[in-house]
Write a structure and sequence with these properties.
Low-confidence stretches: none
CATH superfamily of the domain at 59-213: Succinyl-CoA synthetase domains
Mean pLDDT: 86
Shape: elongated
Strand order of the largest sheet: 6-5-7-8-9
CATH architecture of the domain at 59-213: 3-Layer(aba) Sandwich
Distance between the termini: 126 Å
Order of helices and strands: EEEEHEHEHEHEHEHHHHHEEE
Oligomer: single chain
CATH class of the domain at 59-213: Alpha Beta
Radius of gyration: 54 Å
Length: 353
Amino acid sequence: DVENSIEIHAFANSGAEIAPGLSQGDRVVALVQPVFWPKNGKLTMRVIQMHKVGLGELLERIEKLKLQLISEGLTDASLKKPLPFLPNKIGLITGAKSDAEKDVLQNSKLRWPEVEFEVINTLVQGDRAVAEIILALEQLDLMSDVDVIIIARGGGSFQDLLPFSDERLVRAAAAAKTPIVSAIGHENDQPLLDLVADLRASTPTDAAKRVVPDIAEEFSKLSNAAERIWFRMSSLVENQQQSIASLRSRPVLASPFGFVDNQQEILTQATRRLGEILGFRIERSTSEVEQLHARARSLSPQLTLERGYAVITSVDGKVLNKTKKGEEFSVISASQEISATVNQVRERDVKRN
């Protein structure tokens, strides 16, 4: 970003309506008239009216922006990115040699001495602060080894914290891919950056505690976990030893061959009983099969043919009850199939009962 400036002037006798009591650094609203100087090609602005922006107007603008951010969903909890358990490197944006910088660095080192930081010092108040903070944020967001970014300032007046409610900075933080921790001011201060940040810390010290785990606390957790594992393993081994001792005291294990002999006797008796049952069922089934065979044979057409009867069929195998002269037919006897032709047909007068 490039900052540009333009000259704005008001002469004592120009009739400009300028509110009294203005001082350097005040925020103002001005009605100006452009003035172009053809001789040197210079463009200036002549003040017609100018007054200081009141606190109420600033609060109203911030509240409108807050409602707009909420309506766009930029403050939704679903968009909050989780912080890593142990960051590879932490990006820190804060004022140079400020108390906020010392609080974050010192408390982080106390909690985890090996923690690494990428610190970018910027202005944290005034008109140029927003552009510098946005540039630092974009630089840190592009660093692949930076896992989380802390934006910190140690409190201040309402006017001092206005850069952290600037729409440009708030939207830049919402668009960042790296998790953002906002540590601006104290517990009662809440600029708009807090709403879109992935985590709001009440103070810079709180930010260090929320981002960096306490090595002593983690060692204590590991020690407690190791003790619980050892206790559970010891209990498990003791229970298994008791189970083994109980099994060894049982008769089946005290005299294993006696158990085998008993089972062998049971198996022998079962085998003998099974043989008897199978023999009986086979004998009965054989008798039933012979009876069925004799019954089926008595009903067999072949047995009828063997008694001297014959079956007369047509050429296509259909049984004939009637025929006519010249028709070919077959005579099926018990042992032969005879082909013949009808020479003469005489009708019989058969009386049916």
